[in-house]
Amino acid sequence: MAAKKRKKLRLFSPIYMSLVLIILYLPILMVVIYSFNAGRSVSAWSGFSTQWYTRLFSNRLMADALIDSLVLAGLSSLLAGGIGTLGAIGLSRSHFKGAGAIESVATLPMMIPELVLGMAYLALFTGVGVKLGMGALVATHTAFCVPYVFINVKSRLVGMDPAIEEAARDLGAEPMRVLRDITLPLIMPAVVSGMMLAAAMSLDDVVISFFVTSAETTTLPLKIYTGLKSGGTPEINALSTLMLGAIFLFVAISQLISARSEKK
Amino acid sequence: MTHNAGKDARRARETRRNMLFVAPMALVAVLLVALPLIYVMGMALTTAEGALTLDNFKGILRADYLLVFANSLKLAFYTTVISLLIGYPFGYCMARAPKRWRFILMMLVIIPFWTSALVRIYGWKILLQGNGLINTVLKGLGLIEKNIKFLGSYGSVLLAMVYCLISMMILPCHSAVDKMDFTLVEAARDLGSKPWRAFIDVTLPLTMPGILAGCVLVFVPSVGIFYLSDIMGGGMVLVGNLIRDQLLKVRDWHMGSAMSMVLIVLTAGIYLVYRRSGGDDLGVF
Q: Residues with Cβ < 8 Å from B127, sequence gap 6 or more?
């Protein structure tokens, strides 16, 4: 009897999971498929074409948005990588006053609604006279990217055998040397995977960018957002597909790196 | 003795170094997280002339605003319940799947979670539109005669919400089931429990932390989402839209700040209740 029941579950489980996954991926697939549509419609298929991509690349505004987005994602993930990694090392290797408070506040952007954070930035920046635009974008994206790197690296540091660092120290290595030759190589996979996630988050962000951008700078998600409100076009599909491709790449690399380092 | 003194000195040096390491993050935390939020709190508590007041909060106590808050909470609640009903079985199946499948399944769940919510909702828009795939299939099957207008309906916004947030439910449920000791279920079964009883008496309580974490992770962001109903259409006004309009259309920053504060207090309240009742730290995935 029990075997029969288990067989039922074994049959149910793959069917259920495939169904959910199909529903999860179908909309993404639709966006990608219709980016290759020959016609202007995003619902009636009229043949394969890559014209929307060529149009996209010949569109000055789109090219600018692409460059702005990549620069923004690159800079903010690099900054967050440095700040988050140093923070994780500092906070997991010593206990000092205020450490807990710093950690809670720094990881707060993951918890509070993006909208609130976005409006708070706009209010503060206009209030104290900070210029909106690329500088403000990099600063705010760095702030909400830091938690992704920090949490990733910290959990790696906590899971590390402290004996490894102690052994190096007992053998006479200076603290900086221990850090460079032992700790850093061991946490590198977590740093890189955290930065990849940070880049994906920055490349994806609409809400915060919506508030702190200026007329001169637009990012890809903002272009997509404004394009979507006035109904979709295959051009928006092509743009979305490119963005999906980039984010997919970042996340896949991040996951592969952390899966591999866990196996070791 | 001297050895210990040397060790202490070294430890003090290291602590100083570590404080230096934390400094940039502390700077970000103060300037780019704490300061903006304090600024908003200040705005919420003052008038345009800078005098202290509670009028901004009193201003929210208007029937139409309260209705928006209530509607947002209701939508967030439905989103959470549906995500749980779909996500828990998925997380369960995933944890019980053969080992070689688990990594791939995990990737398949995580990737949409990290990909643009905007693009994914756009995909639904393409699917659901008047002459979209779903209407075409339904017509082809002879189930409907005229195209159904899905876009803009309550259901379409709910669908998009669940769709955007379901990974947040699947992942904690999966890790709770994965951590569970299944010999306990077997023991219950051997002692004569029916499968359903064993599930309710053993599996469910043991995976409750995962369920609660998933519910918080879905509920909290679903209260604050704002561009979703814009894209799905129908003009549904949620807290997010209300705050944005207050800032960009009405241009009453003090009122908008007060609304944001209410939203923060609401989210923080949910999170605190969750932590108080012994919930896990939600930060780590």
A: A26, A27, A30, B133, B134
- Nearest CA to A131 out of A226, A216, A225, A219 is that of A216
Q: Do B22 and A86 touch (CB under 8 A)?
A: yes
What homologous superfamily is domain A59-263 in, according to CATH?
A: MetI-like (1.10.3720.10)
Instruction: Classify domain B62-276 by CATH number.
Output: 1.10.3720.10
Give me the residue spans of the domains in chain B: 1-44, 62-276
Q: How far is A112 from chain B (nearest CA, A)?
A: 7
Optimal mutation site among A112, A178, A243, interface B, most CBs of chain B within 10 A = A112
Minimum-distance CB partner of B28 among A106, A116, A155:
A106
Backbone angles phi, psi at A206, to 5 degrees: -110, -50
Q: Do B215 and A212 meet the contact criterion of CB atoms below 8 Å apart?
A: no
Instruction: Give dist(CA B263, CA A204) in Å, integer.
Output: 23
Q: Each residue of A83-95: pLDDT tens digit?
A: 999 999 999 887 8
Give the closest of B118, B127, B267 to A30, CB-based: B127
Contact A197 B114 (CB under 8 A): yes
Do the beta carbons of residue A134 and residue A191 sit within 8 Å?
no
A178-212 residue pLDDT tens: 888 989 998 998 898 889 888 888 988 888 999 99
- Put simply, the answer to whether A240 touches B21 (Cβ < 8 Å) is no
Would you say A248 and A203 are in contact if contact means Cβ atoms under 8 Å apart? Answer: no
Q: Please judge whether A151 and B120 are an interchain contact, meaning their C-beta atoms are less than 8 angstroms apart.
A: no
Place of tokens 């075409």: B136
The count of other CB atoms within 10 Å of the CB of residue A76 is 27
Minimum-distance CB partner of A105 among B29, B117, B125 = B29
CB burial of A124-147 (b: ≥16 within 10 Å; e: otherwise) equals: bbeeeeeebebebbbbbbbbbbbb
Locate the chain A residue with the closest alpha carbon to B256: A119
- ipTM comes to 0.84
Domain ranges for chain A: 59-263
CB-nearest partner of B122 from A31, A111, A207: A31
Distance (Å, rounded) from C-alpha A124 to C-alpha B240? Answer: 19
Separation CA B265–CA B57 (nearest Å) = 13
